[in-house]
Prior knowledge:
The protein has about 90 residues and is of the alpha+beta class. It has one domain. The protein has helices at about 20-25, 50-55, 70-85, and strands at about 5, 15, 40, 45-50. The longest helix is centred in the C-terminal third of the chain and has 18 residues, at about 70-85.
Amino acid sequence: MVSERFRCPHCGVSLTKSPMAHILGQAHSYVVFSSRRTVTCPGCGGAIDAKRMIDGEYDEKEPVSSGCGILVAIAVIVAILAWIFG
Length: 86
């Protein structure tokens, strides 16, 4: 899934995609509406490739929750209950 946020490949500043860029990324398509093929980073002024940005190559990686913390909490609760009632 394409993220709404991406990082500048030059300076790493976190930026938000335009609604149109986000929708195009979700549709896995790229349409050139103008001659601009780059977006300028407001942080460093570097040119960001619009197609790569839309395709999600610069997207921020969202942390993946493995559920390990929940399993540990359940195991602790079960151990306490087993100790109390066991």
